[in-house]
C-alpha cells in the first residue's frame, strides 16, 4: 500500500505550552530515525526557525506562497541536520490575517499551497508549528492537516483549552473544510511528577481522552529550555539529558502510531 506524506499540525491556542519545543524535537528525533521531515514555521515569532539553527529572512516563508507570488518548493531550506528541512517564518506572516480575511478561499488556502509538496510525496512528515491564536491562518492550517497534535501542560484550565481545540476540530469537520481531520493525540509537556497538580491533571486528561493521550510524557528539563538559545534541538544539543530521552521515546511512539513507508525500511537501529 502506498502511504503518503502525513501532515500534522501542532496546535494549542495557549502560548508557552511546548508547541515549538515539540515540533523542533519531534522533527529532530524523527530525522535521526531516518524519516524525512519538513517543518513549516507559521508563527511570526519564528521560534521553530531559530530553534533549528536558521535566521528568519524576509521573503522566505509560507507568506509569499499564500499570496501566490512564490512556489512552495522554492521556500524549503536545509537545516544543519540530515533528513530535516524547514520553511522558515518571517515577521510578514503576521500580516496574513488581513490578507486572507477578504478571500473566499481562505479556509482552503494553506491546503492548496501544500498540495504540491503532498503530491511530490518526498517527506514522511510535514509538521506545522502553529501560532498561539485562533486566527484565520491557524484555522486554515488546521483545515490543511491530516491530524492535530496538542501539547499541553499539566495545570489548571488545561482541560478547557483542550475543549476549545476539540470544538474547532468538530466545526472544521462539520462545515466541510476538512472532513477527515482528527485529533492525532495529546502530549503532556513540562511534566513534573513530584507535584500533585501535574499527576492529578495528567490522570484527568487520560480519563477524558483515553488512548488519544500519548504514553510518553515530556518532563520539565533545564537542558530542554536552554537548547533554543544555542539554535539546536535538545536531542542534538544534549542527547543524554532527560528531555532528549523523552523526545526520542515520543518520536518512536509517534512513528508507531503514524506509520509511513519508511517504517518498512526500519532496522533495529532506528526502531
Ligand atoms: N520540557 C521542558 N522543560 C523545560 N522548559 C521547557 C520544556 N518545554 C518547553 N520549555 C520552555 O517553555 C517555554 C515555552 O515553550 P514553547 O515550546 O516555546 O511553547 P509554545 O510554542 O507553545 O509557545 C520556552 O521557553 C521553552 O524553552
Ligand atoms: Mg511556539
Please give a structural write-up.
The chain is of the alpha/beta class. The protein has one domain: 3-Layer(aba) Sandwich (Rossmann fold), CATH 3.40.50. It has helices spanning 19-32, 47-51, 63-67, 96-101, 109-120, 136-144, 158-174, 196-209, 222-226, 234-237, 242-257; strands spanning 6-10, 37-41, 77-78, 84-87, 125-129, 147-153, 182-191, 213-219. The protein has an eight-stranded mixed β-sheet with strand order 3-4-2-5-1-6-7-8, with helices on both faces. The longest helix is centred in the middle third of the chain and has 17 residues, at 158-174. The radius of gyration is 17 Å and the shape is globular. The model has no long low-confidence stretch (mean pLDDT 94). Adenosine-5'-diphosphate (ADP) binds at residues 15-21, 47, 132, 189-190, 218, 220-221, 224-225, 228, 243.
Amino acid at each position: 500500500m502506498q502511504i503518503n506524506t502525513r501532515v500534522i499540525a501542532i496546535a494549542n491556542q495557549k502560548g508557552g505550552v511546548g508547541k515549538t519545543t515539540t515540533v523542533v524535537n519531534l522533527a529532530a528525533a524523527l530525522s535521526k530515525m531516518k524519516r524525512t521531515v519538513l517543518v513549516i514555521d507559521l508563527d511570526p515569532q519564528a521560534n521553530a526557525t531559530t530553534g533549528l539553527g536558521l535566521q528568519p529572512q524576509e521573503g522566505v516563508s509560507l507568506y509569499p506562497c499564500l499570496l501566490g507570488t512564490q512556489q512552495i518548493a522554492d521556500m524549503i531550506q536545509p537545516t544543519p541536520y540530515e533528513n530535516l528541512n524547514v520553511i522558515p517564518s518571517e515577521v510578514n506572516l503576521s500580516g496574513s490575517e488581513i490578507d486572507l480575511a477578504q478571500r473566499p478561499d481562505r479556509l482552503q488556502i494553506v491546503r492548496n499551497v501544500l498540495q504540491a509538496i503532498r503530491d511530490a510525496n518526498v517527506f514522511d512528515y510535514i509538521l506545522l508549528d502553529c501560532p498561539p491564536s485562533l486566527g484565520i491562518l491557524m484555522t486554515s492550517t488546521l483545515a490543511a492537516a491530516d491530524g492535530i497534535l496538542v501539547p499541553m501542560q499539566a495545570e489548571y484550565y488545561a482541560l478547557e483549552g483542550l475543549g476549545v481545540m476539540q470544538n474547532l476540530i468538530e466545526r472544521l469537520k462539520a462545515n466541510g473544510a476538512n472532513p477527515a481531520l482528527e485529533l492525532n493525540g495529546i502530549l503532556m509537556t513540562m511534566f513534573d511528577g513530584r507535584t500533585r497538580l501535574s499527576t492529578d491533571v495528567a490522570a484527568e486528561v487520560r480519563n477524558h481522552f483515553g488512548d488519544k493521550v500519548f504514553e510518553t510524557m515530556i518532563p520539565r528539563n533545564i537542558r530542554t529550555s536552554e537548547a533554543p538559545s544555542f539554535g539546536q534541538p535538545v536531542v542534538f544539543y544534549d542527547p543524554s539529558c532527560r528531555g532528549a530521552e523523552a523526545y526520542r521515546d515520543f518520536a518512536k511512539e509517534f512513528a508507531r502510531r503514524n506509520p509511513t513507508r519508511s517504517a518498512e525500511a526500519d532496522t533495529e537501529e532506528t526502531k
